[in-house]
Amino acid sequence: SARAGGAAGGRKLRRAPGLPGAPRVSADPPSFLLVLPGVMAASKPVEAPGGGGTAGLSRWQLALVLGAPILLGAGAIYLWGRRAARREKGASERKTPEGRASPGPSGDGGVSRSPLGRAQAAKNKGNKYFKAGKYELAIQCYTEAISLCPPEKNLDLSTFYQNRAAAYEQLQKWTEVAQDCTKAVELNPKYIKALFRRAKAHEKLDNKKECLEDVTAVCILEAFQNQQSMLLADKVLKLLGKEKAKEKYKNREPLMPSPQFIKSYFSSFTDDIISQPLLKGEKSDEDKDKEGEASEVKENSGYLRAKQYMEEENYDKIISESTKEIEAKGKYMAEALLLRATFYLLIGNASAAKPDLDQVISMEDANVKLRANALIKRGSMYMQQQQPVLSTQDFNMAADIDPQNADVYHHRGQLKILLDQIEEAVEDFDECIRLRPNSALAQAQKCFALYRQAYTGSNALTVQAAMKGFEDVIKIFPKCAEGYALYAQALTDQQQFGKADEMYDKCIDLEPDNATTYVHKGLLQLQWKQDLDKGLELISKAIEIDNKCDFAYETMGTIEVQRGNLDKAIEMFNKAINLAKSEMEMAHLYSLCDAAYAQTEVARKYGLKPPTL
């Protein structure tokens, strides 16, 4: 089975191994994105700095704002200088006004007679009112401090403005908060409290772009040690991404994926009638024996012509030919509806696919294999739309109507992996293997599920057993590229980089036109040898093989951010956006692009940049 598809950020999983049209999982809440067989990372959940929970950091934090080497989709996360120290509560919450802005004797003696001393006294009085919850009186005192303070005392003035902003914040006067914080930042451009308070005010005022720039600056200044700042950035990026994707996706031109992608999709089904070659009786006598030539169909059927175009890899004509069969109410109407729906899904038009899938599912006199296949595809679509309950219902219904269909258990097993229901996933893979003992893909994915369970549980003995399981699979099925790929991801987790590299080479030997494998191998070079040139060379090779591989463009964009080439990164992310196969995937890519753009603005305004490779 070939692998195709893009990368996605992850909690515990990034990708389902092998589920066609399957969701990809990102940070909480999950973002389900379309992929094809076998592209799932095996990284442990990454604990957010300053947090004690198990929630993983989202992709923008790891790949962009952090500016640290992260290996996406390769099975492990490598963070240069990653730190997980907790921050003190006072440092993270930033709720109280500040004390003195500059060193000096305490009290009023001598100091209070100078303008600065009187200003400090007014500020101290304001702090007392603030702590007593008398915010209007505090504002009056801070205003007096501002008016008394000598204009050349920038740091003191900035503190007075920031303190007044804190009081306005308690009164929810967000415009005034933003204005006073702007004054404070003008006087002290690297003033973390003022930048973060202004970011929160911009959030309340729905100024998302400005909020993102401020919180990005804060994250860089804090060296990504404050979870509060990072969560705000994550929240704003998701909102921006969803807004932009909604508008862009609504007006996008449908885009047919590459032939490699489409063949990978269909290769994950064995009981899919519509992907089977034309039968002899469906070909004309004069052409059915010709080798290396496309056969002419015997009947005047739009569906059979569509099947012929599939064999020729002339995919752009399949929807129109299927439509002719449907409009003529021909004898292959159910097959044509399913074929048209499948290609609607492939070009990212789920709203057009759903009525066709609904109709096939409701055809009680249709071939049960067609109905079960339609349920698998509609279930995958629901997961893409973040509706796991409906998705589970469809997979369960498929198992009820066609209990001997191995595809149902294969794909439901991968759904269970995405839902962190590993034991149930293993049961489904076992049933798939019982029905289809020679299913190398199901064997490999069962090993991967067991490995994930052992790895996340930090059980060394079960990890060792799972690794041996991979060895058994590739020994029994030496031509299963998926087995080598999943084993390579597990080996990368275990930091057995040399052997992982060998496994990717095996994949390439078996599937030299699989762009995704080159991306994974390229990322491995970064993690293993910190070899940027080799990594980029392999990812460029992926694009050469498949110029519609969004995973390659996205990954290259991530690496360019880490190298400090933000303009190039934005260019790569935009290419990936134009290839996005779902609105959710597009939203994720916009988040990456917006994070990179925010860094360019922060660098321009404040001269701040995260560390680069």
The secondary-structure element order is: HHHHHHHHHHHHHHHHHHHHHHHHHHH
State Rg: 29 Å
How far is it from the N-terminal to the C-terminal residue, by CA? Answer: 35 Å
Number of strands: 0
Q: Which bin fits the share of residues in helices?
A: 55-70%
Shape: elongated
Low-confidence stretches: 1-92, 100-111, 284-295
How many strands, what sense, and barrel or not for the largest sheet? Answer: none
Average pLDDT: 82
* Helical run tally: 27
Portion of residues in beta strands equals: under 5%
**Structural class computed from helices and strand pairing:** mainly alpha
Summarize the structure.
The protein is mostly helical and 613 residues long.
Spell out the key features of this protein.
TPR-like_helical_dom_sf; elongated; TPR repeat; 613 residues; mainly alpha; 27 helices; single chain; disordered N terminus
What does this molecule look like?
It is a single-pass membrane protein. One of its GO terms (cellular component) is mitochondrial outer membrane. It comes from Pardalotus punctatus. This protein is mainly α. It has 27 helices and no strands. It has helices spanning 59-65, 89-93, 115-131, 135-148, 154-170, 174-187, 192-204, 208-221, 227-250, 259-267, 302-311, 318-327, 333-346, 350-362, 368-384, 388-401, 406-418, 422-435, 440-456, 460-476, 481-493, 497-510, 515-529, 532-545, 550-563, 566-578, 583-606. Helix 4 (135-148) packs antiparallel against helix 5 (154-170), helix 9 (227-250) packs across helix 27 and helix 20 (460-476) runs antiparallel to helix 21 (481-493). Mean pLDDT is 82; it is low at 1-92, 100-111 and 284-295.
